[in-house]
TrEMBL record, chain B:
Coiled coil: none annotated. This is Carboxyltransferase domain-containing protein. Transmembrane segments: none annotated. It comes from Cognaticolwellia beringensis. Pfam families: CT_A_B (PF02626). The lineage of its organism: Bacteria, Pseudomonadati, Pseudomonadota, Gammaproteobacteria, Alteromonadales. SMART domains: AHS2. Keywords: ATP-binding, Hydrolase, Nucleotide-binding. InterPro entries: CT_A_B, Cyclophilin-like_dom_sf, PxpC.
Amino acid sequence: MNSDQNSDKNGAKNSANFTIEVVAENALLLSWQAKISLTQHNKIIALQAIIVKQLGELILETVASYHCLMVYFNPQNNTSTQAIEKIKRIAKTHNAGLEKAHGEIPKVKSLNDDCIKIPVYYDTEQEWDLADVAKRCNMSIDNVIKQHSAEIYHGFALGFTPGFCYLASLPDSLHLPRKSSPRIKVPKGAVAIAEQQSAIYPIESPGGWHIIGQTPLPMYESKNSQFNATINVGQNVQFYAITKAEFIALQQGLQA
Amino acid sequence: MSQGYLEIISMNGQASIQDLGRLNAQHLGFSASGAADEFAFLSANKLINDKLAANDMSVELHNKQRHCATIEITLGQVSFEAKAACIISITGADCQAKINNVAVNHWQCYQLQAGDMLDFSMPKTGLHSYLAVLGGFTCQKAQQPWLGSYAQTINEMALGFTGEKLTVGSKLYFSAQTKGLTESASEKINKPKEANKPFKAPSQFYAQQNLTLRIMPSSLFLQMSSDQQQQFLSTEYIISPDSNRMGYRLSVSPAQILLTKSANEKILSEQLRSRCLLSMPVTYGMVQFPDNEQPIVLMKERQTMGGYPVLGTVMQTDLFRLSQMRPGEKVSFTLINHQQAQQQLIAFHQKFRP
C-alpha cells in the first residue's frame, strides 16, 4: 500500500537493494537488509551524502543507522511521492559509483591513523558489570578486557543521546542481551556492551547496557555554537586499557 | 537594546521554553523537541500577529513572530512578574490565567506593564498552556538559539546549551519591542480590564472524549494477518501515568487483556518481531510495540533512535490533540493513508500563514 519496493524480493546483491516506506507526513524510511554489515553501511552513508548534496533544501534532515536511513523532507513543497521519485533517481544514477567507491572494505586488525583510540579504565572496583560479564561469558576478567580492546569497531549510528555512537561488532564471545531492567543512572563516560554492540555514554543518562569500564575522554565538544561528536558515523574506534591512576591523571588533565 | 523580561515568582507545575523544535540535529543525537501542542503554540503567536496586522505593524515583525519561542506551562501553577511592558497571548489548556488577580480569557492577547503579575492555576482539562510574547522569548540570558531552536529538552539540560531548567527566579527575556508600538496602536491591544468579554475558545480542535488516533500503517503492520490487524485496531487503550513529553505509554484495559488471553494470540507474532532487533531512526508519532504489547507513541522529546518494532505513525495533527490528554483517558487507533495525512498537515499549517 504505502511501501515501495525498489528491488526484487529475493534480496539481489546490488547497492540499490532497499525499500522506501513513507513513515510520516514529512519522513521516508529507506531500509536495507536487517544486518550489521560494513559494506552495506558504507553504501547507506554514501547514498546519504549524495541525497543531502543533490536534494539540498528539499531535505530537512537525514539520520542513518545500521540498516536504515531516515530522510525528512519539507512537505510544503513536495509530496512523499515526489520525494520518493527523486531519491530513486539519485540511487539509480549513483548505483555504479556506489559499487566502485564503496565496495567491500577489508576489516583492519591493527591500529591505524584513521582509528580513534579510546582509553578505558576497565573497572572492577565499582558495582558495574565487568565481573558479571566475565562470569556470564564464562571467561576471565582479563580475557574480557583483552577481547573488548582487541577489536576495531565501526560507528554505525549516532543517537539515543547527543554524541552516543553505536559501535559494532563486538566479538561473538561477548554477546549478551540488554539488561532485563535498565539502570536509572549510567555515569558519563561509561563504556558499555549489549548484543553485538559497544558504546560510550556521553552524559549521565538511563541505560540498559552492561558497563565494563569508563573513559575520561569527552564524547563531544562544543564551541562557537557548533556541536562535534568525538565519534561519528563511519569512523573506526579501538579501546585500550589504562590503569586507575592513568584514568585519574587523564581526567584531571582534561578538566584543567 | 535593553532586554525586558518576565521573572518566575512561584512555581509548582512545570514550564519550559518551546518553539517548533530542533529539526536539523537528529543526526547528532539531539531530540527534535518543540511545543507539545503545535495548534496552541501557533495560535499563541498568531494572536499576536493578528493584533500587529490590525495595527499595521511591519511585515518583518509578522514573519518573525510566527514561530517565536513561547513558554509551555504544564499543569499550570506558575506565577510571573513582568519587569517591562510587553504584549502577551495565552492559549492551550485553560489554567484560569489571572492578570493582577483579575481572571482573563485564554486564546486572547493582553498588554502587561512593568510590575504586572500573571498567574496560572491547575487546568480543569488538558495539560499544556502556552504563553507567547511579542518578539518571542529567548533563553534565560539573551542567548542565540542552539542548533536553530530555543526548545528545551529535559534529558539534554546537562549539556547546558539551552539554559537552565525553569524555576523560581528564572528570567525569561524578550526584545522590549512594545515601546516601538505607537500610542494608538498599543491602546488597541486588550487591557486586562476588558478581559471578561465573551470569547469562544477553539475547543472543536480537541477531543471531547475518547480520541481516535489516525495512523499510517508501517510495512510491519501490513505484514500482519488481518485478524491481528483487527485485534490492534479494536483495542481500547488507556493513557498510562508514565506518559510525558517524550512518549505516551498506552496500557490495555483489564477487560481487553482477558479478551486477548482467551484468544491466546499475540497481536505481533514472534516471527515478525524477530525481524526488528536492530536500532533504527524513529520519528514523531511512531507507535512502538514492545514485548508486553502496550504501545508507546513517540512524542516531541523522543530520542532519535529506537529498538522496538513500529506498527505505524500517528498523523501529526492528532498528536497535537493527544499531547493535551491526561493519564486515564482513552484512545484507540484507526488507519489513514499518508497522502491524506500529508494533505491535512499542509492544510493545518496553511491556517497559520499570515
